Amino acid sequence: xxxxxxxxxxxxxxxxxxxxxxxxxxxxxxxxxxxxxxxxxxxxxxxxxxxxxxxxxxxxxxxxxxxxxxxxxxxxxxxxxxxxxxxxxxxxxxxxxxxxxxxxxxxxxxxxxxxxxxxxxxxxxxxxxxxxxxxxxxxxxxxxxxxxxxxxxxxxxxxxxxxxxxxxxxxxxxxxxxxxxxxxxxxxxxxxxxxxxxxxxxxxxxxxxxxxxxxxxxxxxxxxxxxxxxxxxxxxxxxxxxxxxxxxxxxxxxxxxxxxxxxxxxxxxxxxxxxxxxxxxxxxxxxxxxxxxxxxxxxxxxxxxxxxxxxxxxxxxxxxxxxxxxxxxxxxxxxxxxxxxxxxxxxxxxxxxxxxxxxxxxxxxxxxxxxxxxxxxxxxxxxxxxxxxxxxxxxxxxxxxxxxxxxxxxxxxxxxxxxxxxxxxxxxxxxxxxxxxxxxxxxxxxx
Length: 447
Prior knowledge:
The chain is of the alpha+beta class. It is built from 13 helices and 25 strands. The chain has 2 domains: 1-12 and 38-294 and 346-366, Proliferating Cell Nuclear Antigen (Box), CATH 3.70.10; 373-447, no CATH class. A hairpin with a 5-residue loop joins strand 4 (88-94) and strand 5.
């Protein structure tokens, strides 16, 4: 049970709010409680059933894939997270190694049904469901039901029901990181169907252990082992082959690299369906261990704030930090920290087209923030044990010494640059988030 989270929707908790927070949120949302009595979130027809079926089979193949795990570890598989809300259906999943994230978005124009309530569940797509999806023909009508405890597929006289399964803890950790990376990504390229298919046909064969770069020469995109100006760096390029089954059905493909190339996202557009596919920096690196949200978890934020913003996102079914700063008069720093905390609990996803977070309704557990981020917990322990000594602290430069196991580590923080003499920092140079020593210093001096 240590590796899973069990959903519990027995009822909404209630907290007594005081001060400005009550005036800002609870006066408006004091009657808002997450409805736990509706077993079905969505029921209706899908506009492009054949395309959706192909996307779901591809998503299931991604979930069942791994690029760094043993055959024994591969036997412990889970399948999509399904969210109904804001007039959309979203199906998400990670490869079992955690280094590939994929999401299917079915937009409002692609659905003809009723959203009874917003909600999220996690189901296991077994072989009967895969077989049913594989047998769907173009223009065949199907119906979907998304409920708290199951997902149902109905076609002609056939009915397939998949029940809810526990949600892997590693997926919760990965959800937090990948949404931050998506929010820090910008669209670099748009390719039509022919360009995309030519690009994939020219992809090198076999497992690719070195970095490759996406470049455009004239009108032609290619993968090259040589870096050039404005190229997009891709680690573990062979992982992209998981998208090949969908290429015959696409209208276009967009590429969104992370600002520091910590991930690349490939979005396939197919009418009213979008398939987003994110790769971690290297095939052996899972999103769950990247530490992208750790800096946003340093400052203290009251549980009341987090609870209020969870309700705010639930009601609006979206979460735009910039709009929150402008319209609700919440400081940028507070908004950034709260966004990090909601993402750390798996409550926020990110939509690249809308350029804002969407709400994913999961069990609301404040304890999950620290429990899923041991570096924060270890940093707090260093402070509690008095192992952090601040040598110099000015606006431009902070120097500190942190006691380790038989050694003292030196930490230097200068504006956007930070360094530590520990092994973690020497190995990753800050690419996988700050080490526990840097976190402890930042937390102590409130940077």
